[in-house]
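Good morning,

Attaching, inline, the backbone tokens for the sequence recovery test we're adding to the shared suite. The designed sequence is right after.
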């Protein structure tokens, strides 16, 4: 068994963290389901395909799933290296959601008319996800080079939105709509958001350096046997 596996097998049970994650996963789920129900009850009803094409909805669904899985892991005291990477990716994506909404979309109709839903999806869940990441940093740390793979999804989302837009005559956000200010403006905004995404990835990856001392202890912990006295010395 390698040191990474040993570290995760020795992850401590944390029922408080598990309940914290479960509560906000359920809150996020309630917000997404409520918004979808509101959309379908309109006359005429909105399109589910458009609803699912918002980065806000996609990133919140990711976080809901990740928080639920991480809640079970914390409850059982069992972690996994892949979960560290998925938590990091979800943290980056929901951070993009929160920051982009606050800077560019707070005065724009992005199809979240219910005030509490809007607050949960654009403010509460992004904030809670960052807090969850910081209070339970992965150990061993995640290198920046490895974390760059997290940029793949935002890039694919951009391509998806620009290819789908002309086909359905609909774009999820004004800054991605070339009918408003042309493809030049879309390109500029896309580059700016890509730079911001890189910064989020770098911050998330580098923050795992703070878990260094904990990683050392976990690597020497024996989950199924007595503690090695040399570790406590």
């Amino acid at each position: 068994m390698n040191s990474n596996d040993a570290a995760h097998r020795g992850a401590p049970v944390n029922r408080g963290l598990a309940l914290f994650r479960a509560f906000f996963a359920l809150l996020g789920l309630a917000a997404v389901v409520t918004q979808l129900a509101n959309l379908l009850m309109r006359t005429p009803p909105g399109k589910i395909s458009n609803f699912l094409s918002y980065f806000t909805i996609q990133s919140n669904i990711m976080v809901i799933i990740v928080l639920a899985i991480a809640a079970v892991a914390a409850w059982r005291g069992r972690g996994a290296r892949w979960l560290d990477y998925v938590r990091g990716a979800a943290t980056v994506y929901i951070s993009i959601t929160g920051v982009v909404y606050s800077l560019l979309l707070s005065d724009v109709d992005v199809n979240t008319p219910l005030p509490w839903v809007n607050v949960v999806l654009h403010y509460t869940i992004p904030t809670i996800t960052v807090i969850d990441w910081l209070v339970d940093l992965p150990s061993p740390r995640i290198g920046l080079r490895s974390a760059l793979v997290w940029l793949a999804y935002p890039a694919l989302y951009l391509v998806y939105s620009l290819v789908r837009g002309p086909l359905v005559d609909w774009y999820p956000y004004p800054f991605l709509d070339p009918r408003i200010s042309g493809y030049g403006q879309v390109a500029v905004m896309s580059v700016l958001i890509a730079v911001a995404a890189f910064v989020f990835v770098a911050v998330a990856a580098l923050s795992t350096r703070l878990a260094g001392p904990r990683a050392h202890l976990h690597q020497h912990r024996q989950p199924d046997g007595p503690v090695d006295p040399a570790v406590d010395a």
